[in-house]
Amino acid sequence: MKRILVVDDNKDILQVVQIILQMRGFDVKAIWRGEETIQAVNDFSPHVILLDVMLGEVNGIDICNQIKSNPDTKDICVIMFSAHGKREEILKQSRGNSFIAKPFDVHSLTDIIEEESNKCN
Questions:
Q1: What's the mean pLDDT when you consider all of the chain?
Q2: 3-state secondary structure 36-66
Q3: I need a surface site. Which of 4, 68, 98, 105 has the fewest CB within 10 A?
Q4: Which residues in the chain show pLDDT less than 70?
Q5: Contact, 106 vs 113, CB < 8 A?
Q6: How far is the C-alpha of 110 from the C-alpha of 104, rounded, in Å?
């Protein structure tokens, strides 16, 4: 079973995404505090991370760069998740593998996550 870490400071979005992904058969860990992301990556060993760009106190782009700079975690697929439509700019700055815009279509969300989970790791 593929493990998905979802990081979003909006608890409503976090809960909805968690339920959707669990219904699709993924093992999901959801956190709303960006500061906990690196520890959650180390503890949960996700195949895919769905990472919000704007996380209040921390920046998802910076977190993604930390993950991609670490030899132990660089191969984890990171899907950036944002209401900001600057897809190419966000992916370039973050070195993320993919991008999902908010608001999102449930089918697009699960299709992209399934596709990325099969590509990485």
A1: 91
A2: HHHHHHHHHCCCEEEEECEECCEEHHHHHHH
A3: 105
A4: 85, 121
A5: no
A6: 10
Q: Is 53 in contact with 27 (CB distance < 8 Å)?
A: no
Q: What is the pLDDT of residue 121?
A: 59
pLDDT at 56: 82
Nearby residues of 12 by Cβ (< 8 Å), 6 or more positions away? none
pLDDT digits (tens, 9 = 90+) for 4-19: 999 999 999 999 999 9
With contact defined as beta carbons under 8 Å apart, do 61 and 94 qualify? yes
The region that residue 54 occupies, defined by phi over 0 for left and psi between -120 and 50 for alpha, beta otherwise, is: beta
Q: Which two tokens stand for residue 29?
A: 């860990």
| 21 touches 28 (CB < 8 A) | yes
CB 16, CB 60: distance < 8 Å:
no
Q: Residue 57: exposed, middle, or buried by beta-carbon count in 10 A (0-12, 13-18, 19+)?
A: exposed
Q: What fold characterizes domain 3-119? A: Rossmann fold (3.40.50)
